[in-house]
Amino acid sequence: MLLLIALGVSLADMVFTMVHFLPINIYMAGSDLDAVLTKQRANSWFTANYFRIALDFIGLYVSSRALHKEYTLLPNQ
Length: 77
Fold this sequence. Notes:
Order of helices and strands: HH
Strand content: under 5%
Largest sheet: none
Distance between the termini: 25 Å
Shape: rod-shaped
Number of domains: 1
Radius of gyration: 18 Å
Structural class: mainly alpha
Number of strands: 0
């Protein structure tokens, strides 16, 4: 169950990256940039990156809990 949650968090992170960050990166790679729009998109990029980092840490925590649970359930040899 924990691995499914970790997979869901990883997929959410990838989808969020594709939906939010990729259009901003494509715009920033262009040659005709508006100063106000560029600043807004840069601020949005930095703010959303904190959310993405939080998603990564949640996925890391859930994955480590799943790994710990797996090792504690193994029979002693």
